[in-house]
Amino acid sequence: MTLYYSIVFALLILEMAMFMLLIVPLPFSARRKLFRFLATSEIVGQINYCIRITFIFVAVLFIDAFQRMMKVSQEFKVAEGREGFQDFRTETNYHAKKFYAQRNVYLTGFTLFLSLILARTHSLVLDLINTQEELVANSPTKAVSGDVKKYQTEIETMKKQMQQQQTEYNRLSDELAKAQSNVSDKKSD
């Protein structure tokens, strides 16, 4: 593998590691500190800028690899139709060229695709953290504890009402059963 495709492979591995770091379940405070550091650090901003420039080069490599794959496929079809691959070494050479061209397309394509997913996941996690912070800021603990007590009293009231309704339902169903047995006794007489 050439040097620039080795760099693209290293970039792909780095992206996978960053993605795993994004999706690892962390406590809210640790996640908030990590993402605040990533969002406000100048060094991370400079690294991000360099990575964006690198992705422009990866996109150019993707286009080049795709064109090379198409060219090799065309050569393969022409050679297969013209010669019929009478020489085993020639056929192996064409298959190797095709394999390397496809590998390069997949490598650069996956790197570009994962960079898009990584950027979107990062923005979604930042939005989630900001929303959680707003939720915590808008509902102080005193109001929350007061709301909890209010909901507990409402639940107790509902339980009492449910118990009373259950008792009344049982009484009425017993009366209905007695009335039906009386009616059936009178019909049988």
TrEMBL record:
Keywords: Coiled coil, Endoplasmic reticulum, ER-Golgi transport, Membrane, Protein transport, Transmembrane, Transmembrane helix, Transport
The organism's place on the tree of life at top rank: Eukaryota
Main location: endoplasmic reticulum
Domain Bap31/Bap29 cytoplasmic coiled-coil span(s) in chain numbering: 148-189
Subcellular location: Endoplasmic reticulum membrane
Residue stretches spanning the membrane: 7-26, 46-66, 105-125
Residue span, BAP29/BAP31 transmembrane domain: 1-135
Name of the protein in question: Endoplasmic reticulum transmembrane protein
